[in-house]
Amino acid sequence: MEKVALVTGAARGIGLATTQIFLSSGWKVVMVDRDEEALLAASQDLDGAYPILCDVSQPDQVDRMVAEVAESFDGLSALVNNAGVADFGPMDGTSFERWRRVMETNLDGVFLVSQACASLLKAANGAVVNIASISGLRASTLRVAYGTSKAAVIHLTEQQAAEWGEFGIRANCVCPGPVATKLAMAVHSQDIIDAYHDAIPLNRYGSEDEIANLITFLCSDKASYITGQTIAADGGFESTGIGLPSLRTP
User: Fold this and answer.
1) How far apart (Å, rounded) are the C-alpha atoms in residues 199 and 179?
2) pLDDT by residue (tens digit) across 65-85?
3) In the chain, N or C terminus with fewer CB closer than 10 Å?
4) Which residues are identified as catalytic?
């Protein structure tokens, strides 16, 4: 049976990099995104890519998308829940509307897509990889909604591993640290870039491909006995806690 992966938030960034690595390994990829223009542009020259427009926070759209996948392919070997939104602001200044906007995509979307794909994944003994964030592992300022949503995704992953393991489904979570996406580089000031450089033991941002390589590994047969795990791909950022970088200087 051909290997088919479904990747949400696939039109750019980590989702697109993950799609490209899957394709280079001979997989077919269902590319899901709610930005139609970006999705069509990203997928048009990718052999083996199957774009579907869908907002993962909307149950009716998710159901239609998964029904189309079930009709078009024999099975689903991997699901990568990558779609997410970021909204940074102080706790006291975060309205409930802003809170819900983040939760709808970052948490509800993971739940809805995973649940809708469950029967396809069970039939194929498939793998789930949910993309959380280093912000789900350690609190920091201005991330009350974002960080909380990602912490919830980590726990949801453990629930999936515990409940679906008997069906042969593996579920793992990847927590990227600072990654040099086009969006990040556009909004991070030089002061922020320098601060991350000093705080990360590897002294640099990660790349989209480095995160995508971990995701595709976890979906592969090489990770056949790995489930219920949360892996921080962050250059060691999480390991340093809030300690002063100067204390690490020889």
Assistant:
1) 14
2) 999 999 999 899 999 999 999
3) C
4) 146
Nearest Cα to Cα of residue 178 among 124, 138, 217, 220: 138
| CB contact set of 47 (below 8 Å; sequence gap of 6+) | 23
CB atoms within 10 A of CB 98: 14
Other beta carbons within 10 angstroms of residue 166's beta carbon come to 8
DSSP 166: G
| Euclidean distance between the first and the last CA atom of the chain, given in angstroms as a whole number | 54
Contacts of 146 (CB under 8 A, 6+ apart): 86, 87, 88, 102, 106, 133, 135
Task: Report the chain's C-alpha Rg in angstroms.
Answer: 18
- 206's enclosing H/E stretch is none
Summarize pLDDT for 113-131 with one digit per residue, the tens.
Answer: 999 999 999 999 999 999 9
Contact predicate 66/117, CB 8 Å: yes
- At residue 247's C-alpha, the angle toward residues 242 and 250, to 5°, is 145
